[in-house]
Amino acid sequence: MGFSFFASRAAARFLQDIRRPSSAGVSTAALLLTAASGGGIVAYADSARAEEAPEPPPRKKKVVVLGTGWAGTSFLKNLDSSRYEVKVISPRNYFAFTPLLPSVTCGTVEARSVVEPIRRMFEKKGKDVAYYEAECFKIDPTKKAVHCRSAVGTNLDGNGDFMLDYDYLVVALGATVNTFNTPGVMEHCHFLKEVEDAQKIRKSVIDCFERASIPNISEEEKRKILHFVIIGGGPTGVEFAAELHDFLVEDLVKLYPAIAQFVKITIIQSGEHILNTFDQRIAVFAESKFQRDGIELSTGFRVIKVSDDSITVKCKSSGVETLVPYGMAIWSAGIGTRPVITDFMNQVGQGKRRALATNEWLRVPECDSVYAIGDCSSISQRKIMEDISTIFKVADKDNSGTLTLKEINDVLEDICIRYPQVELYMKSMHMVDIADLIKGGVGDSNKESMVVNIEEFKKALCHVDSQVKTVPATAQVAAQQGYYLADCFNKKDHCVEHPEGPLRLTGSGEGHHNFRPFRYKHLGQFAPLGGEQAAAELPGDWVSMGHSTQWLWYSVYASKQVSWRTRVLVVSDWTRRFIFGRDSSRI
């Protein structure tokens, strides 16, 4: 009895002691104590001080980005990656400044000066961004997964294939060359889409001069070997022709004086003018300069076949076919769709399109979580006539069946944001305000008393959709799309509660869109023409041509480099070329 009493008192004191947290800060949750009180067991549970297990942090949404070109890199640089689990898939572990690829072909700029490693670009983001050097060969929107194949080796299964799931997919795969199924192009022509293409062209140019220098080669054969043909008179073809001409005149002629007289450069263009996407004044200036430089322009000709030593062209006006012998041919006649994009378009019902269609928010309409930016996509601007009835209903707040000018002005800003063709049409027709546009359907010159019904409203806006524009497939567009989409991702949660977009003028017409739609802002474009001359088309219908424009080109392209490393390398390459000339080594 006495032992049991003392054992119980000792146990009570011990239980009081263990209520206190230990020096390590650990609280005892339960204790089984054996006491000599009739051989019983005392159980103690300290539920009052039990610590609740911390809740796990919410899972980050998975964002998979396909491609490291202009669009993908711009998106990744501006994305707040701390909000998402970001994974990047690309067979190219670097970003290439593609506007300088023509300069790489002739040694004006070295290849490594225009590339920046992807991992270096995102090292500040640390573990928030994971990169895999692989190629995506299939997109499965149903399972929200992408199938990839390693570009550098195989995994344990021996095939190098793996799959990644996603919550959001950003497709920025760019485009490939478009041969228009012309026979012989893939086998015999060079292209200028990648850094590797520029390096191959550089070697081939030197090879042509070395082959033509071999003894016992006839003059006719020398003329063929030293005939450089550029197929396509767009910006890429023109810039390469200008760079090649400068390389020949400033460097190779001095090194190969015996065969300089046999060199010839020809541009074959299916249209009537080169640089047809530029202002006509620039096209005329470029054509006259090329003619002075001795560059032959064959406009109005279409290539129908390419063999190992000749190109068959057909005159579009007369239909006469001509054989053009050549030593090296460069194909720069357009861009095409990559196979993985073609397969994806077939899955989502876009099989008849040339590019992946997105809405004005860069989302693929058939897939809520898939976005497409850059050359692989094309924005389908919605036409105002498709929503004209909803617009009228939203504007008619008093349900009178008619609209006053004030009611129209109340929704005008939302209309112009949602349908940019309205402003473009008014500008093209030199209209001051919306009243001038509505007068076309009413015919009433009194703006104050202007009232329109639904039919008159339709009549006034029926020609607006003629100003729907498609954005060009350029690096400038891709970079702006990447920046815009990253900004939308960064404020996605905020805009759910505080929408920034225009009124919903489709479907039910209720509420606002979360974001403002993408709007491309044209900042101008350059066309280097050789001989330290260039042409520029800048905002405000300003056209500049000549030597001063070339120096503007230097400053703009240096400032647009993605890092100080590439900026210094490019400027030093230009300086080296000014002092020592271009390197003609075949390496």
Automatic annotation (TrEMBL):
| Organism superkingdom | Eukaryota
Which Pfam families does this chain map to?
A: NDH2_C, Pyr_redox_2
Q: What subcellular compartments does it reside in?
A: Mitochondrion inner membrane; Peroxisome
Q: Which UniProt keywords apply?
A: Calcium, FAD, Flavoprotein, Membrane, Metal-binding, Mitochondrion, Mitochondrion inner membrane, NAD, NADP, Oxidoreductase, Peroxisome, Transit peptide
List the membrane topology term(s). Peripheral membrane protein
Q: Which residues form the signal peptide?
A: none
For whether the record's keyword set contains Mitochondrion, the answer is yes
Catalysed reaction(s)?
A: a ubiquinone + NADH + H(+) = a ubiquinol + NAD(+); a quinone + NADH + H(+) = a quinol + NAD(+)
Question: EC annotation?
Answer: 1.6.5.9
What positions does the domain EF-hand occupy?
Answer: 383-418
GO cellular component terms, A-Z: mitochondrial inner membrane; peroxisome
**Matching InterPro entries, A to Z?**
EF-hand-dom_pair, EF_Hand_1_Ca_BS, EF_hand_dom, FAD/NAD-bd_sf, FAD/NAD-binding_dom, NDH-2, NDH2-like_C
SUPFAM superfamilies this protein is in?
A: EF-hand, FAD/NAD(P)-binding domain
Query: What's a single GO MF annotation on this record?
Result: NADH dehydrogenase (quinone) (non-electrogenic) activity
The entry assigns this protein to a family as follows: Belongs to the NADH dehydrogenase family.
This chain's protein is named: NADH:ubiquinone reductase (non-electrogenic)
Q: Which organism is it from?
A: Triticum aestivum (Wheat)
